[in-house]
Amino acid sequence: MTWAPCQPERAAPTCQRAAHSQSDNLHRREFLPPSEVAKADMDSTKAEEVLLQSVRKAGAAVPRKRAVGRLVMHSMVMFGREFCYAVEAAFVTPVLLSVGLPKNLYSLVWLISPILGFMLQPVVGSASDHCTCSCGRRRPYILGLGIIMLLGMALYLNGDMMISAFIGERQKQQTWAIIITMLGVVLFDFAADFIDGPIKAYLFDVCSHEDKEKGLHYHALLTGFGGALGYLTGAVDWGQIMLGYSLTSEFQVIFFFAALVFLICLAVHLRSIPEVPLRYENEESKFLLEVTESYKYSSIEEGIKNGCLKSTCTEKKAEAKPGKCAVVSHTEDQRRMTLKSLLKTLLNMPSHYRCLCVSHLFGWMAFLSNMLFFTDFMGQVVYHGSPYAPRNSTLYLSYRKGVEMGCWGLCINAISSSAYSYIQKILLPHLGLKGLYFIGYLLFGLGTGLIGLFPYVYSTLALCSLFGIMSSTLYTVPFHLIAEYHREEESLKLQDGEQAGQHGRGKGIDCAALTSMVQLAQIILGVCLGLLVSVAGSTVTVISASTVALIGCCFVAFCVHYVE
Fold first, then answer.
1. Are 411 and 443 in contact (CB under 8 A)?
2. Positions of the region Disordered (predicted)?
3. Is residue 166 one of the residues assigned to a domain?
4. Which range of residues forms the domain containing residue 449?
5. Does residue 283 lie within any of the structural domains?
6. Quick one: DSSP state of residue 234?
7. What is the DSSP string of 363-410?
8. Which of 70, 90, 156, 269 has the fewest Cβ atoms within 10 angstroms?
């Protein structure tokens, strides 16, 4: 039997070649003596192992189905992250005011972190796509960002006490307390915003398409529970419990509980689903050449060379004739990606990715413009208080009561988000992703508009449940669409006979580009909304949120691409 040499034309799909090779092997076995048949069986087993390894390394293998417990374990980090986020939302303003932060520096605190995040998030996403750490691509970044979160939380909750232990002079003490507290807030926000991209990419790497859907719903569910528990910490008088007497302040007690919760959740997440370390194409080719060189007439081994890695032959020729055939693997190109080429990749992203990012930006601008100022809106507009009044005055006490009631509203939002994340699973087959995306924006736009028109206590608290629908939508549907886009691209490449894993855009960089819209929304709001609030009052926040959400509704309906 004559075997064709390696041809330059496009190779057939791997599975098809393997099937033809196995049928040829069976045909040849009929004419071999028993000893040769046994040897052929051993060779075939080795070759199948090599084939399986190459398919896994190329990314063509579909991850196996994951148990529900594993998906819940994977989602625990979202519980811990949102718990810490809610603690920050409840206490960061009192902390900053207590250390004497000037008003002109207040907006600076909220601008530094999103600017850094917007600039660096895609860089980290691309780096995680090509990380070759033995414990996986995403988990090293998740662990590092988790440590930075804990460091930031320790600084902004305990910075005043730490500085007072080292510096005795009152003036220097206040200055350094402001610096350390600001640094803690920036570090925490930076890491907490960053960590979402690697978490989502980790889920997409290790799960099948069906499990990705389940995983995103569990993420939203536990995000809501974590947020609800975190907001409830604002309603507890920590000074009256035993631990409160042992520690210096309630902020230390809060840090103790928040750090403990986050560490447990992070450890469970990192142990949830194992990652396969990334192996590059040139290493794989070298390995396969070493294995297959001794099998001159073996059909399955030749199938591996011709089908699995069509670059194997050409790479070998390139080593012999570097001047004539300069073959550089696609993954090596990406591995050398600079900041300039990365930004070019982001700017030249496919139109459907760009439209999804813009719709995500509208959603987060609407959501954050309401959430960042909601407790202040409750204190000033609903309860008619003033944060600038004397501490024991009626106006200031009314403002404080409104802030506390605002925390309960945010707690309702978190519980609603968890409940809706479960309801989404029921609605998805009937409404589809487009329907869920549209409804989330529409209900939020209508709800915030009604709150702005009728700022009463009980109606506002009832409408807070619509915030949760928007929150759950932002945490699930856009990332679900990213998974659909990648699935569509991989299926098209398989139809063309290419390997599914060999596409130019990694899941990490796409998740990072989507998540960076959160930072861009914060930058826009930090520059524009603060000025509007100072001129027109807190009512403008909910009206702005309603307007942007309804504009986003139109964009979601007419501009975003949905996979049929």
1. no
2. 1-24
3. no
4. 346-495+505-563
5. no
6. G
7. HHHHHHHHHTTHHHHIIIIIS---TTS-TTSHHHHHHHHHHHHHHHHH
8. 70
Measure CA 324 to chain center: 43
Amino acid present at 200: K
How far apart CA 284 and CA 331 sit, in angstroms, is 12
| Token pair recorded at residue 138 | 């995403």
Q: What are the pLDDT digits (tens) for 491-503?
A: 877 776 655 445 4
Residue 248 DSSP label: S
Give the contacts of 524 (CB within 8 A, at least 6 positions apart).
365
| Cα–Cα nearest to 527, from 379, 389, 365 | 365
Residue 195 CA to its chain's centroid (Å): 6
Structure-token pair, residue 429: 């087959």
Residue 547 in domain? yes
What's the pLDDT tens digit per position in 141-160?
A: 899 999 999 999 999 888 77
Instruction: Extract the tokens encoding 560.
Output: 């975003």
Q: How confident is the model at residue 285 (pLDDT cuts 50, 70, 90)?
A: very low
Give the Cα separation of 403 and 379 in Å (integer). Answer: 5
State which H helix or E strand residue 264 sits in.
helix 250-270
Instruction: Give the confidence band of 517 by pLDDT, cuts at 50, 70, 90.
Output: confident
Confidence check: pLDDT of 48 > 70: no
Mean per-residue pLDDT for 34-40?
A: 49
Sequence-distant (6+) residues with CB within 8 A of 56 are 276
Sign, Cα dihedral of 277, 510, 117, 541: negative
Residue 459 to residue 461: CA distance in whole angstroms: 6
Q: Work out the number of other CB atoms within 10 angstroms of the CB of residue 502.
A: 16
**Which CATH number characterizes residue 448's domain?**
1.20.1250.20
- Please give the residue that has the higher pLDDT: either 61 or 329: 61
Residue 185 identity (one-letter amino acid):
V
| Region class of 497: left (phi > 0), else alpha (psi between -120 and 50), else beta | left
**How far apart are the C-alpha atoms of 268 and 226, rounded to whole Å?**
15
Q: Mean pLDDT of all residues in the chain?
A: 74
Residue type at 412 in one-letter notation: I
Predicted confidence band at 551 (pLDDT cuts at 50, 70, 90)? very high
Quick one: which H or E segment has residue 162? helix 139-166
Taking each continuous run of H as one helix and of E as one strand, the counts in the chain are: 21, 0
Spatial contact of 538 and 377, defined as CB atoms under 8 Å apart: yes
Whole-number Å distance between alpha carbons of 413 and 462: 10
Number of domains in the chain: 1
**Is-contact 49 292, C-beta < 8 A?**
no
Is residue 262, in this structure, part of any structural domain at all?
Answer: no
> Do 206 and 275 contact (CB within 8 A), yes or no?
yes
Considering only residues 224 and 501, tell me which one the structure prediction assigns the higher pLDDT. 224
Two structure tokens written together for 181: 């507290």
- Name the pTM for this structure: 0.66
Give the DSSP letter of residue 59: T
Which of 286, 335, 308, 315 lies closest to 58 in space, CA to CA? Answer: 308
